[in-house]
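Summary for the funding panel

The consortium committed to producing paired sequence-structure records for every protein in the target list. Below we show the first two records in order, beginning with the earlier of the two.
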Amino acid sequence: MNSLIWLAGGFSAVALSVHIVSLMLALTRCRKPLAVPAPASESGITIIRPVCGLDNYAEETLASTFFLDGAECEIFFCVASARDPVVPLVQDLIERHPQSNARLLIGNDHISDNPKLNNVVKGWRAATKDWIAIIDSNVLLPKDFIGQLMAARRADTGLISAPPICAAPEGAWAEIECAFLNSYQARWQYVADALGLGFAQGKLLFWPRHVLDRAGGIARLGEELAEDAASTKIVREAGLHVHLLRRPVAQPLGWRNARDVWNRQVRWARLRRVTFPLYFAPELLSGAMMPTVAVAVTALGLGLPVVAATGLFLVTWYGSEALFVRAAGWHFRSLSPLAWLLRDMLLPALWVKAWTGSDFVWRGHAMSVATAGSDSRD
């Protein structure tokens, strides 16, 4: 019995220490910097924005492509079907900004089971620049975005990416999705980057074109169900690194419902499980729930007040998370800690769900992780 008590106490202490250290480590990589001017001598970049349907804040996110400071850009909006409801919006934006070098490309090149990649291919083939940024349609770009991209380049850069940070959540479930995206997923992505284990995130893939061409071209991204997992493996095979922007990209959420949030998290968890199983397996121990149970067991065994012990532990856990979010300049409300608590209560069920199924639906496409591994984000 004594050994169980000390084991539970040791686990909770280690878990809290890892939690706090990870927050500190992530903060060194993503504390909000000042605006970054774009180098005037750059020859320009290509921006490819795959579009499909009308997301919340679609006009704002797509319009932000036209207001970037710095180097010359050529812009390709890619859509699979001329009947897509987003087409009139894109056409209107291009007409309202005639000075931009922007085009709408329509068509679907089936090179993989990934519908997003099939949509992007035509933009990649049309690109004339040496650096190509593939950016999801629901990302809001700041004016100094090009400067941020250029500042992130290093000698060993094979790819530059960035996690999404939620903005403008509306409703309880949008707050919970924000809890997943920000101080959980984005935080751990920055920790991996700080440890030299950076991995790509499909919201932004900024390629030096020659890296992907030498690896066999854009078709190689079809080796996984989603392009970000394939991108990570290609870069690592080349002996290079995925580097993250110092400032994450913003994704305005708007309204979210429970089913969509849960299904999206299940999809991502199943894809992580298939793509990087050794990294995914410890996720069962992440979040505050398992350590809190260990604190309760320890307090009960030592004759201490259980409610007071677990309450102090949770205040320390989420208090440190709150300090991190505020220092990083990310979304925070007085009820955010409650959203974090609900997120952590869902994590064990999410982990089990990831191991007990393979199917999911992505943008209306029925898919299965049983046939390939990937890590997809919409």
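The next record, for a separate protein in the list, is shown here:
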Amino acid sequence: MKRYILRRLLQMAPTVLGVVVLTFVLFHMVGGSPASLALGKNASARALEEFDEQRGFNKPLLIGRWSPTRAYGGGGFDRDAGPWRGLEGVRHLPAAGRDPGRISLEAGREVAAPLAFGLRPDTEHQWRLRYRLPAGRALVRIESAQAEGAVRSRQTHVLPASARWRTASIPVAPGRAPAGLRTVLRAEGAGLELRSIELRRRNAHWLDTQFVFYLRQLARLDFGVSNFTNQRVSRMLRDGLGPSLCLTVPIFLVSLAVSVSLALVCAYFRNRWLDRSIVILAVGLMSVNYLVWIIFGQYYLAFRRGWFPIWGFESWTCLLLPVLIGVVSGLGENARFYRTLMLDELYRDYVRTAMAKGASPGRVLFVHVLKNAMIPILTHVVIAIPFLYTGSLLLEGFFGIPGLGSMGINAVNAADVDVIRALVLIGSILYVAANLMTDLCYALVDPRVKLG
């Protein structure tokens, strides 16, 4: 048994890794900028940068030495001058023929590169620009300023003349000035044309990436910080898990016991009026929408009759109505499913043999049929267990239960990326683990199943 579990865990490792990679792809590559989704379009560049830095989104995805920074939000100039718009001595030139859109810096005038916020003096940056300079030269001066505004140090780089488009990289060495760094451009002899200009930040090493940052978080069981509540996601999961299980576990157990009992009754009285009545009732329960049960329960049973509390999680009585609604809403589907399993077993050869030997219908049903139907029942039950973790979205939302279901709804509405990512990841891993539990349960209930 132990050897089999160990082997199965090793076999599951690639699947778990695949789940981690898929979660990373969905939340880091497909969904766009998480910072813009969470903070909105009107958020400042500094706030977006701090959001990305706290969660590792300001690093390369898989591998890389440099990454962009929101301190400079420009790039190409095909449409307009971008952040250079409105600066004295800067003119936008639209695309003409083979020449792309670009900006022109007037000769003899100093122009400071527009930054949304000051560069960090302890981090190395790099300007990467595509320029053209028919004559003369251009100077790029990196100034390190003190807090009171006085220039403390200068680094000057010369761009030689070039009639063709040329790419240049200007390093911005880290300094110690608290006021940050400033970049000044000056063209001498002719106007400097810039086709594109980018500012990049140097990372600690080639593997200082979003994926490695994400793996380190998971290794520490750190799921990040909620941007909506500003709490650790791991703590939010612990606080929400209890209320969710208090709701979903009773629903699961009561629904399983009642639906299997009804299925056995249907099998015992098959093709009689009681069996047909239960089938009609099950179809009727399946036809009613989940929201109808919630509205009916809250309005009639709780508000009009006063039998149950309408809202809250103060005591166990607050769970009675949600549990009742959860059981009734899923009873029809479960009863029909288990009835089909029981009837399928009833028409097998071993049942006819047992009856021919004089076994009573009750013994055949409860000793033989139920035992042999445990394999599909266990498959249905064990696979449903991971979903107990996520709670019930509608029930928790309508009845004010502070579980993981309502937490998930709030996270979706607030674009709380860390919470959504944690819920999806843990739910997926639990689903993978449920397959191992299913194999172990097969061996427990069926002696024909051997764990090799």
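Regarding this second record: The domain at 82-202 is CATH 2.60.120.260 (Jelly Rolls). The CA atoms of residues 59 and 389 lie 32 Å apart.
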